[in-house]
Amino acid sequence: MKKNINNISKIPPYQKEYYSWLYESKILSKLIDRDWLLNLITFGTHKKLINICTEEVYPQQKTLQVGVTFGSQLARIAERLGVYGEFDIVDVSATQIRRIRKKYRFLYPSMNFINRDAVNRTENRYNTIICYKLLHEMPLATRTKLINTLLSTMSPGGKVVFIDYNKPAWWNPLRIFIQLYNRLYQPFSESLWDKEIKDFTTAKGQFEWKKSTYFGKMYQKVVVRRKETLY
Ligand SMILES: C[S@@+](CC[C@H](N)C(=O)[O-])C[C@H]1O[C@@H](n2cnc3c(N)ncnc32)[C@H](O)[C@@H]1O
Q1: What is the residue with the minimal CA distance to atom 12 of ligand 1?
Q2: Rounded distance, CA 57 to CA 218, Å?
Q3: DSSP calls for 39-75
């Protein structure tokens, strides 16, 4: 098994402009990398989102996660996969890949740390592909490319799991705060309010899309499987 691949990948413009202050900062990344803090700043949603993500993964599967996360989300997936699982973690930021490699390389031998842009296609095929809170950070064209790439990366019988923001219900008391935050800091996030994830692909008819929402519709989980062909 190939381990610790370390190409130098170019940070995309959307990330440089809006998110590099966090993802390229070792100090801030270390500071925020705590479950209790993440629970606090996400109004307690962090823990639940990790749970609904982990339940999609089964022992021994070959799994891909697009984008490093903070807190214990990656560890929970690795624990669920067990020692016979294979867990590729892909991130465009070498800083994040180094951080996560340092944190987990001796704890979870199933983890492979890969520095590359996930929008680009790969030969590898996976039972489960996780895209956790990444789509809302991407402009529409990149988001479309990524979704299409991930759909083509499933192994037969495999699935892609998207966990991300959704349009909160009108009565959700946090709706106004999120809207304000989006307008100030997350310019691409609200396009996920107006358009379903499946509508970013022209091939949506070839797949089954199962959507669930959480926390007054503030978050969504979409599980995508390829439809079985009749011939
Ligand atoms: C998973 S997302 C959101 C993480 C979120 N803040 C959390 O912990 O819940 C952030 C990660 O995605 C990575 N990323 C952004 N665009 C990417 C791309 N095109 N390919 C691979 N990784 C990407 C960023 O470098 C960053 O480490």
Answers
A1: 67
A2: 23
A3: HHHTTTHHHHHHHHHHTT--TT-EEEEES--STTHHH
> What's the domain range around 209?
13-226
Distance from Cα 8 to the centre of ligand 1, integer Å: 16
pLDDT single digits (tens) 166-225:
999 999 999 999 999 999 999 999 999 999 999 999 889 999 999 999 999 999 999 999
CATH number for position 41: 3.40.50.150
Cβ atoms of residues 14 and 134 within 8 Å:
no
Q: Is the CB of 164 under 6 A from ligand 1?
A: no
Is the residue at 4 inside a domain? Answer: no
Is any atom of ligand 1 closer than 6 Å to the C-beta of 162?
Answer: no
**30-61 tens-digit pLDDT:** 999 999 999 999 989 999 999 999 999 999 99
Domain total in the chain: 1
Give the integer Cα–Cα distance in Å for 181 and 94.
27
Angle 163-21-10 from CA coordinates, rounded to 5°: 75
State if residue 117 touches ligand 1 by the CB under 6 angstroms criterion: yes
Distance between Cα 134 and ligand 1 center (Å): 5
231 within a domain of the structure (yes/no)? no
Q: Quick one: tokens of 150?
A: 């991930």
* 2 falls within a domain: no
Asked if residue 144 is part of any domain, the answer here is: yes
Tokens linked to 179: 């809207």
